Amino acid sequence: MTCRFAEKGCLAGLDLSGSIAPPDVKLNLGGDFIKESTATTFLRQRGYGWLLEVEDDDPEDNKPLLEELDIDLKDIYYKIRCVLMPMPSLGFNRQVVRDNPDFWGPLAVVLFFSMISLYGQFRVVSWIITIWIFGSLTIFLLARVLGGEVAYGQVLGVIGYSLLPLIVIAPILLVVGSFEVVSTLIKLFGVFWAAYSAASLLVGEEFKTKKPLLIYPIFLLYIYFLSLYTGV
Fold first, then answer.
1. 3, 144, 186, 203: least surrounded by Cβ within 10 Å?
2. Where are the domains of the chain?
């Protein structure tokens, strides 16, 4: 009895107070241990861990703006050089203008031509864009009727890029505008330059003896473009 009382006294003298703390749960992510909160642990234990998953960033969402819009400045610059220098002896692969058409380059050329054609007559801008779209459509339909294997996008790109010679002669016309003979010669040179550049890309060997039937409307189209610029 004495031993029992002594044992009880010993137990009574011990401090049995304390608190129960939740266990620390740590995740190993790439070698670094991250402590989870109680709520996170609760969700994982109940099978709702999928609520805590975070999607990785898609690398395609971080593309540059030019790449998102499919704008290749180097390709556009190369096509501009091909149009402005149509001589085969210069070594440019000019067929890339036709075989690899784009939209933004020709659109930029047409808009720039529209801007320099303003002279206070803002309605010219809509006319130039309209003639570019429907004039290219006319050339496309005529080419298909004559047996040419060409797409509308290719015609649209070639006709748009080939406006560059008219843009080149525009500042020259401002200087020599008072000399009627010189001005007329420069206009003819610009139209022939633009028409030759476009026709050499669109009029292939498949047309054979029918080439004049396609070259002539291309020539007339650029004469009309020039008339929108000069106001004649």
1. 3
2. 101-230
